[in-house]
Amino acid sequence: MANPAKENASHEPWEWPEEVWRQKTAKVRAGISLKPKMWKEGARMAVALSFDADHETVELRNGGGSISRLSQGQYGARAGMPRILKLLEKYAVPASIFMPAVSAMINADEARAVVASGHELGIHSWIHEFNSKLDEDTERSLSLRAADMLERISGQRPVGMRTASWDFTPSTLKIIREMGLLYDSSLMADDEPYELTEDGEPTGIVEIPVEWIRDDAPYFNMDRMGGARPYGGPVMVLDILQRELDLAYEERGVFQLTLHPHHSGHRSRIFILEEIIRQAQAKGDVWFCTHAELAAYCAVEAGLLR
User: Fold this and answer.
1) I need a labelling partner for 220 at 20 to 30 A (CA). Which of 5, 36, 102, 179 fits?
2) DSSP for residue 77
3) Which residues contact 284 (CB under 8 A, 6 or more apart)?
4) What are the start-end ranges of the H helices in 179-233?
5) 185 CB-side CA count, 13 A
6) In whole angstroms, what is the distance from residue 60 CA to residue 254 CA?
């Protein structure tokens, strides 16, 4: 059978026949909402904190030519993550750390410390590669190798994936299903967890949605040779996250957060994380959970997992 998407790949989007854009939009889509009627133990809101421990791999992915940028990544492992782990311990809060396999190989003690502290270690690519630059076989191979390497280093088999740079291809969901993962956390179709569909069919895979609004990189990223420049101070970022937190509480939903140790682990920014934790805990009826715990709870409540 002919593939209309491939046949019309060279045409301008406004020239596509209807079946082309329908095929593209139906490939991976948000299915049923997995927001439960009640959170664990009757909590009003779930809080799922996550940290992308990219460290040196962002520059390695780009060729590894800048020692300066490699050192910026090393800061995340050397200073940022220890500061974050100490803060999580202070408030007895669990978190999910998504780590490229190469980052875990360079910083093996950190990967082991994450698991030893009771946190979740999740898949975050091999070397922070862009999936959209890979063919399906290569993407699959790197995903499998990454999962194996994280398990080998930490002793914990990952159950969830976050694609590097949230770069999700038409093959990614297929690979996630083949790997038997519980959830993904790379897409942005809702505020609340939902089931992913593929080509219109339910998959049983839980999506814990992310958003650039709740990610520190757009606010703090700096590339002297590129166009990325910090455009907001820590107080501005805290204000945005507070508003997200407060409305999530009002709506009895999920507050999901993505931070990077080499951005938010700095002395002048770590208060953002601490203040969000303090404000959430002050609300009283809040469930702090890892992404794996959140996905499992939602799947069980919806009957996707028994």
Assistant:
1) 102
2) I
3) none
4) 217-220
5) 34
6) 34
State pLDDT tens for residues 74-108: 999 999 999 999 999 999 999 999 999 999 999 99
Closest C-alpha among 298, 50, 35 to residue 182: 298
Query: Is the CB of residue 50 less than 8 Å from the CB of residue 124?
Result: no
Give the pLDDT of residue 1.
45
Q: Is the pLDDT of residue 252 over 80?
A: yes
Is 43 in contact with 285 (CB distance < 8 Å)? yes
Place of tokens 């799922």: 48
pLDDT at 251: 98
The upper half-sphere exposure of residue 74, i.e. CA atoms within 13 Å in the direction of its Cβ, equals: 8
Residue among 189, 204, 129 at smallest CA distance from 163: 129
Task: For residues 286 and 44, give the distance between their C-alpha atoms in angstroms, rounded to a whole number.
Answer: 6
Give the three-class secondary structure for 207.
strand
Neighbours of 148 (CB within 10 A): 13
Q: How many CB atoms lie within 10 A of CB 114?
A: 26
Three-state SS letters, 194-215: EEEEECCEEEEEEECCCCHHHE
Is the backbone of residue 65 left (phi > 0), alpha (psi -120 to 50) or beta? alpha
Structure tokens at 259: 């931070």
Cβ atoms of 183 and 297 closer than 8 Å: no
**Cα–Cα nearest to 183, from 281, 69, 299:** 299
The CB-side HSE value for 169 (13 A sphere, CA atoms) comes to: 18
Instruction: Supply the pTM of this predicted model.
Output: 0.95
Determine if residue 37 is left, alpha or beta; phi over 0 gives left, psi from -120 to 50 gives alpha, anything else beta. Answer: alpha
Q: Are 215 and 198 in contact (CB under 8 A)?
A: no
